[in-house]
């Protein structure tokens, strides 16, 4: 469950984030969250939450690396990266995590074999520490390998238990107004363990705000960022995407190259929470702006055979602020040329899943493999569901990584180049 850790100079036994990040010198009660029953002196302190960043299958390590880089110690499980942090951590991880799907507060976790277990467990969580009396709190749910298999019933019972808890805490009766800030709650049943979380992100973290157009099968921004990170590309090396589509890989590379926070230009649902201080978000955004390297020189290019996708890619890049930085061109992948060394080519080529496309895609991959033999110092990274990709490309991959592009199982084929030294 969510817990508090504090450094204080007076004896205090309970605290609520609803107090705005400070302690009273008195004990808070469930019936009066954040309200003083005695002295009025305040003492600055810090609340630590149990947080979880969710990730697509296969991307747990890149997310854990990002969490660690921000100064938090990750604990990795399937699709979940747990860590501890205060309200600043909520703001920082939402703003900076490129590969995670969402950041959530873990409000409670307990065994639940019956609906009575679920009701009592949910009701025992101090929801008043998170939700004001007018909070809007829709409840979603999922159940895997649990006795409580009816997701709809789990949602209804969770909602009822939270209502009873909040009514008791705020001295109310009946239906709550739910006209205030949004707190999206999820009840997740996994092997008879109920986990209650509160979403701090709102829209998924892949929503960067720059995508004004897309093709039929766009690459998710979070996956694109992971693909760039896994290449170990650095801004002093050229980067090229020969199947650029709507430009997502190139744009994510540019954001990484300039050290831009991916969430800088969007809003998050927790910004509207009464106990999240506006200064926390302001400070995190100000710091993100101060560490951005807008003047770094980047050599990032993208090509596609479809002129319509080139126009979409250019529009998306312009929306992201890279109109004059990323160069897009209509061109076949096999027509690639470069006078640079030690470059990185990364892409999500067509998978040939539609009838009649397989032979065409296979020929494209063969052509790309042939042309890249002329560039031995370039490293090539291709995400593909084609099991015979190495055979078509004409080279055994240095390394493969299993990833999912949506629901499609793929491999990230890595063909490392020969490092040319000056």
TrEMBL record:
This protein's record includes keyword RNA-binding: yes
PROSITE patterns given in the database record: THUMP (PS51165), UPF0020 (PS01261)
Keywords: Methyltransferase, RNA-binding, Transferase
Domain THUMP, first and last residues per copy: 89-200
EC top class named in words: transferase
Stored Pfam families: RlmL_1st, THUMP, UPF0020
InterPro entries: RlmKL-like_Mtase (IPR000241), RlmKL-like_Mtase_CS (IPR053943), RlmL_1st (IPR054170), SAM-dependent_MTases_sf (IPR029063), THUMP_dom (IPR004114)
Coiled-coil zones: none
Keyword Methyltransferase assigned: yes
Gene3D superfamilies hit by this protein: 3.30.2130.30, Vaccinia Virus protein VP39
EC number from the UniProt entry: 2.1.1.173
Domain of life: Bacteria
Name of this protein: Ribosomal RNA large subunit methyltransferase L
Organism, scientific name: Bhargavaea cecembensis DSE10
Species classification: Bacteria, Bacillati, Bacillota, Bacilli, Bacillales
């Amino acid at each position: 469950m969510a817990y508090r850790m504090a450094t204080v100079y007076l004896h205090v036994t309970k605290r609520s984030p609803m107090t705005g990040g400070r302690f009273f010198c008195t004990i808070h009660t469930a019936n009066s969250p954040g309200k003083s029953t005695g002295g009025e002196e305040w003492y600055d302190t810090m609340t630590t939450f149990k947080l979880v960043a969710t990730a697509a299958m296969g991307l747990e390590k890149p997310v854990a690396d990002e969490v660690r880089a921000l100064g938090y110690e990750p604990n990795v499980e399937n699709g979940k990266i747990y860590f501890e942090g205060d309200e600043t951590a909520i703001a920082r991880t939402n703003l900076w995590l490129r590969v995670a799907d969402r950041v959530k507060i873990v409000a409670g976790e307990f065994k639940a074999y019956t609906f009575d277990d679920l009701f009592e467990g949910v009701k025992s969580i101090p929801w008043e520490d998170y939700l004001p009396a007018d909070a809007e709190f829709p409840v979603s749910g999922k159940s895997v390998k649990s006795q409580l298999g009816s997701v709809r019933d789990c949602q209804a019972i969770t909602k009822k238990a939270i209502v009873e808890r909040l009514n008791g805490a705020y001295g109310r009766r009946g239906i709550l107004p739910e006209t205030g800030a949004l707190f999206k709650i999820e009840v997740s049943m996994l092997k008879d363990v109920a986990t209650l979380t509160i979403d701090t992100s709102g829209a998924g973290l892949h929503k960067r705000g720059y995508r004004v157009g897309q093709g039929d099968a766009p690459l998710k921004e979070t996956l694109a960022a992971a693909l760039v990170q896994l290449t170990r590309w650095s801004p002093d090396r050229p980067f090229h995407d020969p199947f650029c589509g709507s430009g997502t890989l190139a744009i994510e590379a540019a954001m990484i190259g300039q050290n831009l926070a991916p969430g800088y230009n969007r809003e998050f649902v927790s910004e509207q929470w009464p106990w999240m201080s506006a200064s926390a978000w302001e400070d995190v955004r100000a710091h993100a702006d101060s560490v951005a390297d807008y003047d770094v020189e980047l050599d990032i290019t993208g090509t596609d055979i479809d002129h319509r996708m080139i126009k979409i890619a250019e529009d998306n890049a312009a929306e992201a602020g890279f109109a004059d930085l990323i160069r897009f061109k209509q061109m076949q992948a096999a027509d690639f040329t470069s006078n640079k060394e030690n470059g990185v080519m990364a892409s999500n080529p067509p998978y040939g899943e539609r009838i009649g496309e397989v032979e065409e895609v296979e020929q494209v991959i063969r052509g790309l493999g042939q042309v890249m033999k002329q560039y031995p110092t370039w490293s090539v990274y291709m995400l593909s569901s084609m099991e015979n990709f190495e055979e078509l490309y004409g080279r055994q991959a240095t390394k493969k990584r299993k990833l999912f592009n949506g629901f499609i199982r793929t491999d990230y084929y890595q063909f490392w180049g020969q490092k040319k030294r000056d």
